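Protein in question reproduced for absentees:

***
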Amino acid sequence: MVADSWFDQRTDAWLYQRVVEQMPLAVAVWQAETDDLHGLRLVYVNPYNATTVGVDLSPFVGRHLADAFPSIVSTPLPGHILAVALEREPGYQEIHETAGAPETRLQLDVRPLGRRCALVSYINIAEQQAAASCQ
């Protein structure tokens, strides 16, 4: 007989949500509702994204990429997020500089979650790079 986990599923879901909300790493989850860029919908952001990006992204949850962030639709990033969500790519990484904010340089890591979802985690590496260049 296999021993049951000492966490039941409801406790596991609560615990995972609390961990993601408290970790000092910005994350967003995009779901591919269709097989094109217009079907990418933001379904989750953790609270730390406001610290990293400087803007609270939670009001954009539930919106499609083209509606929420029209300026990045023409960049390669959404295509990579879509490809990872559809599991056509195993993952993707890039350094992204935010226009108009030279102090923000984001290291993005995109990974598949299954169910046509992609996890995008990002950290601001501007301070690290500035410190490294001063040495």
